[in-house]
Design goal:
The structure is a homodimer. By secondary structure, chain A is α/β, with parallel strands linked by helices. Chain A has a single domain, classed as Survival protein SurE-like phosphatase/nucleotidase (Stationary-phase Survival Protein Sure Homolog, Chain: A, 3-Layer(aba) Sandwich), CATH 3.40.1210.10. Chain A has six helices and eleven strands. Chain A has a nine-stranded mixed sheet, with helices on both faces. In chain A, strands 9-10 form a two-stranded antiparallel sheet. In chain A, strand 6, helix 4 and strand 7 form a beta-alpha-beta unit. In chain A, helix 1 packs across helix 4 and helix 2 crosses helix 3. The longest helix of chain A has 17 residues. The termini of chain A are far apart. The model of chain A has no long low-confidence stretch (mean pLDDT about 95). At the A-B interface, helix 2, helix 3, helix 4, strand 8 and strand 9 of A face helix 2, helix 3, helix 4, strand 8 and strand 9 of B.
C-alpha cells in the first residue's frame, strides 16, 4: 500500500470539529498503519467555516496530546485551511503524500460542500496538488459509531495512495449512518442539487437585545440516481470528485452573446 | 432598466470589507437609480472568510448609517453569507431581484475566488436563485479610485436586471486598476489556474510566544488568453461565470474504473 518501497507515505490529517472530536481519532486509527501520520487540527470547533483563511490576524501552533499511538499532533488557532497551510510550511516542511480531513460529525453531501470546513481542507489539498479526501459521517452524535466510516476511510486512503487523483480534484466521501454489515458499498456520484430553506430563531438576551440563530431545512428536489443523496439514502457511501475551478464553463458561450462592449 | 413596468427592482448590496469601506459606497452610488437599494453588510471586515456561515453562534442585526442617499442600511455581526441569509429572511422578508457584492478592495480573480467573502455572498445568491454579481477592484488602497469599477458595476447590473443569469450561476467581475478611459472593455473569461505560494512570517510576542502571519506570492502558469488573469493584465475587466456545483464531472468516468466494491 506504500507509494514507494523505500519510505512510508506521509499522511496529514485535519478536520473542522477540532482536535478533541471523536471523528478525527477514528480517522487516525483507520489509517495509522498506512504511513507516518501527523494531525494538525483546529484547537476549537470550526464547523461552517467554508474556505475561510486567516489573512487579517495572527496564527498560533501548539504541540498537542493525541490519543492514537504513533501520531504526532499539533493544534493551530486557525481554520481548517489555515491548518493545511501551517502543516505544509511550518510543521512538516514538505507536502504530505496524502491529506485526509474528518471524519466530520454530520453530512457534507450536496450543497453542504460549499459551507464545509472539512471539505475546504481537502479542496486546499487539491489546490496544493496533494491527493486529498474529506470524510463525513451522517451522524451528529458525540458518541456516533464510526465503524463503517473507518472501513471506508481506510479503503479510500489505500486506493488514493496507490492510484493518486486527477489534477485539481479531491474526493468528498460521505458515509451513511449504518452498521458495516448494512453498508451496500461505495458509489461514485455527482453533487446533488439540494438546498437549505433557511429561517432564523429570534430570541431576546437578558438585556432585551434581539439576536438570531440560523436554522434550516434541507430539501433535495434532485431525483438523479447518480447523486450523493441517492447513494446515501440507498445504503451506499458516496464519493464525489470535487474541484476548485468554479467556472461555469457551460455559461460562457451564452454570456458571449451579450455584446457587453457595444 | 426595470424588470417590470410596475415596480423598481429590489437590489441587495453586501460585501466582505465591512459597511465602512469605500467600495460598498461606490457600488451603491453606481446603481442607486436602478432600483430600491438595501445594504446589509458585516459590521467589521470579513476578508478571506470564504463561504463561512455562522452555525455555532448567534447573530445580531443593527440599523446603520450609510452615506449614500436613498439607501436603507443594516449591519450584521456575521459573515457575508450570513448577511445574505439575514437580509432575505429577517430584513427584506423576500428575495431581492439582484444581489451585488463588493466592490472589494483587491483582486478575486483566479484561485482567489475560493477564499473570497465577496464572492461567497454572490455564490450564496446563486444558491438562492437570485441573480448575483461580485465586483472587485485590483487596488487595495483605502483611497482607491473606483471610477472605472463603478462604470463596470452599473453596466453589468443593468445587463443582469434585464437578462437574468443561467440557473446556478453568478458572476465574478474583476476590474483592473485603470482610469475609465484606459479600460479596454469587458471580457467573458474562465478562472485562470493560478495559485499562491504560501509562507509564514514568524514573530515573537512580548511574552516570547511565537506566532505567525500568512504571506503569499501569486503565480499564474496558465497562459490562456481566455482567462481572467489575461484579461486583467491586458486592460479588460474580467467576467467569470461562477457556480456552486463543485463536482469534477470529468473525473467521474475515471473513478468508476476503480472497482471499489470488489
Amino acid at each position: 500500500m506504500e507509494n514507494s518501497s523505500e519510505k512510508r507515505p506521509l499522511i496529514l490529517i485535519t478536520n473542522d470539529d477540532g482536535i478533541t472530536s471523536a471523528g478525527i481519532c477514528a480517522l487516525a486509527e483507520a489509517v495509522i498503519d498506512l504511513g507516518d501520520v501527523y494531525v494538525v487540527a483546529p484547537d476549537s470547533p470550526q464547523s461552517g467555516m467554508g474556505h475561510a483563511v486567516t489573512i487579517g490576524g495572527i496564527l498560533r501552533i501548539k504541540p498537542a496530546y493525541f490519543p492514537v499511538k504513533g501520531v504526532t499532533a499539533h493544534t493551530t488557532s486557525g481554520t481548517p485551511v489555515d491548518c493545511v497551510k501551517l502543516a505544509i510550511y511550518k510543521i512538516l516542511h514538505r507536502k504530505p503524500d496524502l491529506l485526509l480531513s474528518g471524519i466530520n460529525h454530520g453530512s457534507n453531501s450536496s450543497i453542504n460542500v460549499i459551507y464545509s470546513g472539512t471539505m475546504s481542507a481537502a479542496v486546499e489539498g487539491a489546490v496544493e496538488s496533494i491527493p486529498a479526501i474529506g470524510f463525513s459521517l451522517l451522524d451528529h452524535a458525540a458518541d456516533a459509531d464510526f465503524s463503517a466510516a473507518k472501513i471506508v476511510a481506510r479503503k479510500m486512503s489505500m486506493e488514493v495512495i496507490s492510484r493518486g487523483l486527477p489534477a485539481g480534484v479531491c474526493l468528498n466521501v460521505n458515509i451513511p449512518k449504518l452498521a458495516p454489515s448494512d453498508l451496500k458499498g461505495l458509489k461514485i456520484c455527482r453533487q446533488s442539487a439540494g438546498y437549505w430553506t433557511d429561517s432564523f430563531d429570534e430570541r431576546n438576551a437578558p438585556s432585551g437585545e434581539v439576536y438570531y440563530w440560523l436554522k434550516g431545512e434541507f430539501t433535495n428536489p434532485d431525483k438523479g440516481e447518480d447523486t450523493d443523496e441517492w447513494a446515501l439514502n440507498n445504503g451506499y457511501a458516496s464519493i464525489v470528485p470535487t474541484q476548485y475551478d468554479l467556472t461555469a464553463h457551460h455559461a460562457i458561450a451564452n454570456l458571449n452573446r451579450w455584446d457587453l462592449n457595444e
